[in-house]
Amino acid sequence: MSDSSTETTPGPDQPTQVPEPEARTFTQAEVNDIVRQRLTKEAQKFAGHDELAKKAAEYDKLVESQKTEAQKQADALAALTAQNAQLQADALRRTVADAKGLPGGLAKNLVGSTQEELEASADELLAVLAPKDVKTEQAKPVVPRVATDGKTPSGAPGGNAERFAEFLAGIRK
Hints:
5 helices, mainly alpha
């Protein structure tokens, strides 16, 4: 009886022992067969995939050829639209320049995108180009100012130039 008392059922604190399955060894032929079966099963999933891939590639080529043609047309349209906008802007510049009396090639110097902006630019350009009224602005001679650092400026009596001239005159005598 003492033997039976030592054998107890596992309690909550003790893990139950689960018998481990037997380790099975496979021969190379069995492994090859398992791999072949799996490969066949996977190949069946993708049956017809090559045909679909071929059709998809043909469709992509067709779409690309159409897209390329459409893209060429879109690029040509964009270029023509930009050229048209440039020509309209140039025509507006020439119209404003003629209306304001700007000389020949100065229309290209006008800045702005609207007629009002171009007219304001033309007025600024005309203000710069207009001859000055002699009565309102009297020209004063510009006398250059030279820093002398306390020395007599050259050209003034007793300056370096005069002394140099005297020196040369003394040598020539």
